[in-house]
Design a protein that fits this description.
Number of helices: 16
Order of helices and strands: HHHHHHHHHHHEEEEEHHEHHEEH
Structural class: mainly alpha
Radius of gyration: 28 Å
Strand order of the largest sheet: 1-3-2
Strand content: 5-15%
Largest sheet: 3 strands, mixed
Helix content: 55-70%
Shape: elongated
Distance between the termini: 56 Å
């Protein structure tokens, strides 16, 4: 862990590297085994690039947020610059010095041994893969399997907003419910496009960062309380409500289904045989159309001994009316 934590900055550097190297549609972004396969096939040049990205990022953090440390300053003096660039880091000896400076800024012990691991592309790749596999097996696999479908739904809701005329900062506030900091606003305003990525375990934290010409916004779509409860952020709750109401409108847009709803309006509930007889349609048609109405949340199924009957779900029409009034207030 010590050999990779400092150079990968708790995973942020690897995240940026993957985004830079892989297209958004690449399966490694959302499938663990594809991620591992991608890492296993990174060649020595790519692993060196990853290490260089990590060292440059780490030293930039040191200069920006930390008090100068004599041991780090001494190494940087030997290097000949407080902030080496990528071209300089291609020189193995200079890269090794920069790695030592970074490790010292993290107060890592055995810097020589750990620097040797980072300098060795094969050993460095092996440590990364071992650590990621351990995280996956210790709990992330179970949580990902539980949350993947919901995260995809959230991503779909965001996609529907793409193209809406709105300032980047306002779009971030609308989707995440969080006001971006001034530095984040500068990044957003300077980027030609913004990609939102719903994630787990970010809590109140929102990551806004550029990769190449793209700006990425990582955030958690739910709000977790101190008691362990969680609720969707308003944007996603609203998007989910829109989907539910769209399903209702689509369901009653069919003449046969609308006739069934109107028939049940003044009935405590009817069997499929009764509905078929009253509307003069085949029983199989009734069963199929009632199934659509149940899925849309308009009808409920209740059992009476060996039979089942359908009745209107209380409140469905009120929900639709309220949504229509709120959505199209002022006739818009």
């Amino acid at each position: 862990m010590k050999s990779i934590r400092s150079v990968l900055a708790h995973g942020w550097v690897l995240r940026d590297f993957a985004i830079k190297k892989l297209q958004g549609s690449h399966p490694a972004h959302h499938n663990f085994h594809d991620l591992i396969r991608w890492l296993e096939h990174l060649d020595e040049t790519e692993m060196t690039d990853l290490a260089i990205d990590g060292v440059i990022s780490g030293l930039d953090y040191y200069h920006t947020y930390m008090e100068p440390m004599p041991v780090v300053e001494a190494i940087l003096k030997d290097l000949g610059t407080p902030m080496p660039d990528k071209k300089m880091m291609l020189d193995a000896e200079k890269r090794k010095l920069a790695i030592h400076a970074l490790l010292e800024s993290w107060s890592v012990k055995e810097t020589g041994k750990i620097a040797a691991v980072i300098m060795d592309p094969q050993a460095f790749r092996g440590r990364i893969i071992h650590f990621i596999k351990a995280l996956w097996e210790k709990g992330y696999q179970e949580e990902w399997n539980l949350q993947e479908r919901t995260l995809r739904q959230h991503a779909g809701a965001i996609q529907q907003q793409i193209g809406t005329p709105m300032a980047p900062g306002d779009m971030v506030l609308r989707i995440t419910g969080m006001e971006p900091e001034e530095k984040a606003k500068q990044i957003l305003n300077g980027s030609p496009s913004v990609t939102f990525v719903p994630c787990l375990h970010l809590g109140k934290f929102m990551a806004v960062f550029p990769v190449e010409r793209e700006c990425y916004v990582l955030f958690e779509p739910v709000i977790r309380t101190a008691e362990g409860q969680q609720t969707e952020r308003p944007f996603f709750a609203s998007a989910r409500k829109d989907e539910e109401m769209a399903s209702i409108l689509e369901a009653i847009g069919d003449k046969t289904r609308l006739k069934i709803v109107m028939l049940l309006k003044n009935q405590p509930g009817l069997h499929t045989v009764q509905i078929a007889k009253a509307l003069d349609i085949h029983q199989s048609t009734v069963s199929r159309q009632c199934g659509v109405l149940v899925k849309a949340g308009i009808l409920e199924i209740h059992k009476d001994h060996a039979f089942k009957y359908f009745r209107l779900r209380p409140g469905w029409a009120a929900d639709l009316s309220r949504w229509l009034m709120e959505t199209f207030r002022n006739g818009q």
